[in-house]
Amino acid sequence: MAHSQQTAPFDYVIFGATGDLTMRKLLPALYNQLRIGHVPEDARIIGTARSELSTEEYRTRAQEALEHFLPAPHKDAALIERFLKKIHYVTLDGTKEDPASWDDLHTVLKQSPADRIRVFYFSTAPQLFEAISENLHRFSFITPQSRVVLEKPIGTDSASARAINEGVSRFFKEEQIFRIDHYLGKETVQDIIALRFANPVFNAVWSAEHIQSIQITAAETVGVEGRAAYYDTSGALRDMIQNHLLQVLSLCAMEAPADLGADSVRDAKVKVLKALRPIPPEKVASETLRAQYITGTMDDVKVPGYLEELGDNSNTETYAVMRAYVDTPRWKDVPFYIRTAKRSHKKVSEVVVTFKKTASSLFGKDGEHNRLVIRLQPNEGFGLALNIKNPSAADFSLQHGAMDGRFAPADGSLIPDSYERLMLDAVRGYPALFIRRDEVEAAWAWVEPTLQTWAANKVPMTHYPAGSYGPKEARAFIATTGDAWHEDMKN
């Protein structure tokens, strides 16, 4: 799935070029790809937004962003100057139908050969995707070599997701549409495939016969802060579970694809999403849990609760957990716990695979579950907890021994940011790490009954102090199937 060759020349047109995502992720990602030799010298980056800026003014903003967001080892003044020269800026409201407002973009793009690859990156609100696509078509910007990258979220429910997909598909073919989920661009997420299928020691035991449960957690120490107004229209389930964490689940649960081609991998993931056991409204209260953080203490500093940050009353969750079952022979009755939280005790994204205890009576009740922990971030790597003999015990008793490994490049360099791979895979026309339309719609179909039941307040909102691992009710929730959260397990 890795691609390291230099790309063909391209024009990267970013709608929403003055926004936080562009400055924090997209421009640094393209700079780093230039730094390692993947971007050709005649590639161009064309930023568009409604702000009245000159190209030089925009380059100044871009330089400030690179200085702020690039890791220190990657900063090179001469290279930054080379990169900035690739950047152009056009003042443009992508939703306007006035032909004259598109003249400047026409002028810039005409400076490239007609067969140049064009990537249109929509870093805007999803409700604008169709209008921008229609204008690109109306004013003849879309060529056979064009691609469009759609930033998440793709809708807020099944109906809006279908509307967005259908709207964009009126003007771009499916093979031209790249729906981005930056979790799939993480090298550590892709390592799930390598760990599972490249290592017989795991491949042989990756099923209900040997696995008791799988936990998938994405927790952040930050609150919603400046994003409170946006977050309150989304919530933890829409923001993380419907997209990122269901993608991780699909990689954990899928059957081996025929190959690592885009269609094979995505076919395998879709089968998982369509095999998820439905959670009907009457079971939402027993199979899900939602909560908000309240005032708490983090690093000895008192931090406000969600409602204080929002400045209003709200039933939007900042913590969510769902118990999922994949109804395939491989995963018969194995629970997958999908959990996400704001203002958690620590920042962590991980997959915890708990294996069943050995059926041998040789050690009686001594010994604990073997566990594989795949650390997606931070401290990217894996840990394997095994039962070993306790060397300090008088009798033959067991203790946990830990094996640890790192997902680090062999040359000692930093792990690339997820956007680096994804942005150039769009140029290359390689869609394996992007979301296909049927994946988006299958994921929405599964979570929607829960969203509707929560919206009707048929499941109580629980609470947890900022700086904790979550609500106390979460321990009882997972204990109903005989499991415990990773942070509560014995080491």
Automatic annotation (TrEMBL):
Catalyzes the oxidation of glucose 6-phosphate to 6-phosphogluconolactone. It comes from Bombella saccharophila. Residues 13-190 form the Glucose-6-phosphate dehydrogenase NAD-binding domain. InterPro entries: G6P_DH, G6P_DH_AS, G6P_DH_C, G6P_DH_NAD-bd, NAD(P)-bd_dom_sf. NADP(+) binds at R50, K152. SUPFAM superfamilies: Glyceraldehyde-3-phosphate dehydrogenase-like, C-terminal domain, NAD(P)-binding Rossmann-fold domains. Residues 194-486 form the Glucose-6-phosphate dehydrogenase C-terminal domain. Substrate binds at H182, K186, E220, D239, K342, K347. Keywords: Carbohydrate metabolism, Glucose metabolism, NADP, Oxidoreductase. Pathway: Carbohydrate degradation; pentose phosphate pathway; D-ribulose 5-phosphate from D-glucose 6-phosphate (oxidative stage): step 1/3. This is Glucose-6-phosphate 1-dehydrogenase. Its EC number is 1.1.1.49. Belongs to the glucose-6-phosphate dehydrogenase family. It comes from the Bacteria. The active site is at H244. Gene3D superfamilies: Dihydrodipicolinate Reductase, domain 2, NAD(P)-binding Rossmann-like Domain. PROSITE patterns: G6P_DEHYDROGENASE. It is an enzyme of class 1 (oxidoreductase). It catalyses: D-glucose 6-phosphate + NADP(+) = 6-phospho-D-glucono-1,5-lactone + NADPH + H(+).
